[in-house]
Amino acid sequence: MITAARHIDSTPSARGLRSWKCHAECCVIQQAGESNPESRSSPARRPKAAETDVDDVRFFDAHCDTILQVVEEGRDFLTGPGLHVTLPDLRAAGVCAQVFACFVLEARSPGRAREHAVELIDAVHDLCAAHPSELRLAQTSEDVAEACAERGPTAVIADACGGHCPTAVVLSLEGADPLESEVEALRDFHARGVRLLTLAWDDNAFCGAAFGSGGGLSRQGEELVTLCEELGVMVDVSHASDAAFWDVCRVATRPFVASHSDCRSLCDVGRNLSDDMIRALAERGGVVGINLAAGFLSQQFADAEAGAREAFWAALRSGEKGLDEAHEAEARATRGLPRPPLNVIAAHVKHLIKVGGEDCVGLGGDLDGIESMPAGIQGVADYPRIAELLLGSGLTEAQVEKVCCGNFSRVLSQTG
Ligand SMILES: [Zn+2]
User: Fold this and answer.
1) Which residues in the chain show pLDDT less than 50?
2) Residue 201 Cα to ligand 1 middle (Å)
3) In angstroms, what is the span from residue 239 Cα to ligand 1's centroid?
4) Cα 245 to ligand 1 centre (Å)
5) Are 218 and 181 in contact, with CB atoms under 8 Å apart?
6) Residue 318: what pLDDT?
7) What are the tens digits of pLDDT across the range 184-233?
8) What separation in Å is there between the alpha carbon of 393 and the centre of ligand 1?
9) How many angstroms is it from 81 CA to the middle of ligand 1?
10) CA-to-CA distance for 137 and 124, rounded, in angstroms?
11) pLDDT value of position 154
């Protein structure tokens, strides 16, 4: 994400890797909502829609930055103070698949982008190993389909800590910087479990970024898209420049995704997709994951934070501040702004359906990578509220199921 990225409000890698040991996995489920004061949607208090039980809705979230918070900030994935995504909340909310993004930028890890990415990937592997009954690394689309099919109502989830229905963990790289300009390096990351590649965060050797030079895919970038398709790695155009988006449209032969982006016609920022882009992505079978950043959902919020965003990029491009320092200043400037209402989420979902159809919409909250979300959303524990909101906004149960889980699950099966 661009604005107020919490994951880079920090001293890079200052704390190194921590080790995670499961305490009592079954108890983790029982503690949901108690251990995290922000977890207002514990199973017993979940909202119910008038005619449809939102407890039955499962979620596939296509982007979170949680592993950076865990590794670099030392936050606790079990107890979660300061985290949007914790293990108990993932389970309690009914998340059947969660993409864990490993965000690495060459400028932030000079000379060791690949090494740093491997550290983050290993940390995700460690989490899965420490909590085998609750998290399972997804190696194939079948792993995800199985997890999403198995996950049921909350009562079943609470019951499941004895051993089945783990949440599928999908590994992604945010930015192709860890490839260090070598297309073939993707093979090693694929072998380590990476199944989604966000081509750019800032400009890199493969792809121009939305807030970068505006360049498209390089020749190497085209080769990279082709290798992604060969290996079964989802291509992700979130953060890519418009030119790069259209280059991906030209080169890709399979569906691709925008894992965490919103609609530009409702909130005019470069990170969001124009209607033409939404149509083109949808025609190719792709999915757009709704980003919960207030500055991508609400024009009013985006306008209010525009000054801080411009200052961020000016400080960064001039070299006056490093990335982390610039983000810290931006976050300070935007933290007190009033949050947009919850229904901005429904507005973007409905716009995507209107422009691209009900098969092109998913969720990619950008949790633990953003500062401000719509009122009523504190983290993944509140995802059932989104299902309730969508049901109350006139979407059918089948549409809500597609948005919350089915579409990303389907596109993953068409990629791998
Ligand atoms: Zn991002």
Assistant:
1) 1-50, 152-163
2) 7
3) 7
4) 15
5) no
6) 77
7) 999 999 999 999 999 999 999 999 999 888 899 999 999 999 999 999 99
8) 27
9) 22
10) 8
11) 40
CA of 155 to the centre of ligand 1 (A): 33
- Neighbour count for residue 137 (Cβ, 10 Å): 20
> Which of 141, 34, 52, 178 is CA-nearest to residue 92?
34
- pTM for the full predicted model: 0.84
Write out the chain in H/E/C secondary structure.
Answer: CCCCCHHHCCCCCCCCCCCCCCCCHHHHHHCCCCCCCCCCCCHHHCCCCCCCCHHHCCEEEEEECHHHHHHHHCCCCCCCCCCCCCHHHHHHHCEEEEEEEEECCCCCCCCCHHHHHHHHHHHHHHHHHHCCCCEEECCCHHHHHHHHHHCCCHHHHHHHHHCCCCEEEEEEEECCHHHCCCCCHHHHHHHCCEEEEECCCCCCCCECECCCCCCCECHHHHHHHHHHHHHCCEEECCCECHHHHHHHHHHCCCCCEECCCCECCCCCCCCCECHHHHHHHHHCCCEEEECCCHHHHCHHHHHHCHHHHHHHHHHHHHCCCCHHHHHHHHHHHHCCCCCCCCHHHHHHHHHHHHHHCHHHEEECCCECCCCCCCCCCCCHHHHHHHHHHHHHCCCCHHHHHHHHHHHHHHHHHHHC
Q: Which one, of 101, 4, 57, 49, lies nearest residue 309 by Cα?
A: 4
Whole-angstrom Cα distance, residue 403 to residue 353? Answer: 10
β-pair partners for 64: 100, 367
Residue 290 confidence (pLDDT): 98
CA of 354 to the centre of ligand 1 (A): 25
Query: 212 C-alpha vs ligand 1 centroid, how far in Å?
Result: 14
List, in order of start, the domains of the chain with CATH numbers.
Answer: 6-415 (3.20.20.140)
Distance 162 CA to ligand 1 centre (A): 34
